[in-house]
Amino acid sequence: MVSIKIRIKTEKTRIKPNYGLKKTEKRLYWKQQGNGVAVGTNGQNKRAKFKKVFHTFDMVNPFLLEEYMEHGPAEPPGDMHFSPQILMVLSGAMEMHYGNFKVICQSGEFCLTGPWEPHRARILPGLCHYIVITLDIALIGAVSSFHDVDWAYPFLIPKKEQPRFSSRRERAVILRAARYLLRIQKQNNPGFRSYQWLEIHRLIWHIQTRLPKRDTPRTLEKIYPAIVLAWNEVTRLISLDEASQACGLSRSRFSDLFKQETGMAFGDFALRIRINAAAIIMTERESGNSMKQISADFGFSDVSHFYRSFRKILGCTPVEFVQKQKRSDSVLS
Predict the structure, then answer these.
(1) Residues 161, 263: one domain?
(2) Hey, which residues does 163 pair with through a beta bridge?
(3) In this structure, how many other beta carbons lie within 10 angstroms of the beta carbon of residue 27?
(4) In the chain, how many domains are there?
(5) Over the stretch 173-226, which tens digit does the pLDDT of each residue have?
(6) Neighbours of 241 (CB within 10 A)
(7) Which contiguous run of DSSP H or E holds residue 277?
(8) What is the C-alpha separation between 200 and 291, in angstroms, rounded?
(9) Domain that holds residue 44
């Protein structure tokens, strides 16, 4: 059960939500958080260090809802993550930055963030109240056996093509949905998570019906089957041939498109997911379980291979990771 606690502060600091994540959650949601460029004391630009923030999803917890109240002007750290997001403003205004594209999001408006899309916000003067819904992309659409809605499509189109709800009536739809999601969560009645999940899909359907139809699939849509394959098959090594065949592309064409869209090779992407999944299981297993068994469960040839891969992805050994997890239960940095 997700519990959101909000405190309104007068200083220009970000209010941290209580994520309420459970130990039983399986799927990992992670994001790189940071502005990307920082100005040093000598006036020169330096690359800012990114902070990795981890959350997890499974069939029982397919989304994460966060509520924020921030005083502007302020610029919270930007971030980038695989899981798509819906941002809905209840009051106030902010300016969202997606690369070179900027858009003002005011009361009753929304912004969609797609997989691996760098973004940051600039809170405009005044109090801004908004919610952010992060979704498990593998479970979007898990509300019906019908296949007549492309649930992921709204998150894949370019920002310039996303619909803008400018009329009073259209904004009322967004406000009603945002307030309803918060209200049923605070009431904490039995089944409220199901109500929220259905309401989220009702909102996505409402947005999807206002999108332009496209005949030519975009790059992310072309490699999407390989991304889902990597998420669903975390217990084994997926070859480049298998991934490219899932997308109906040649090895070379698939490799080029995947690197173009995600900024990394498919092998590195799939390895990251396997290591993240293994890390989650490590925190749930009893101390008597061996690293040999864990490495075998996730398709590594031996323990040394698992250790090398673990350090490459998370920057620490499995033992160090477990110690960090004990100190910070849900958020790992």
Answers:
(1) no
(2) none
(3) 23
(4) 2
(5) 999 999 999 999 999 888 899 999 999 999 999 988 888 765 545 667 788 888
(6) 10
(7) helix 266-284
(8) 39
(9) 27-208
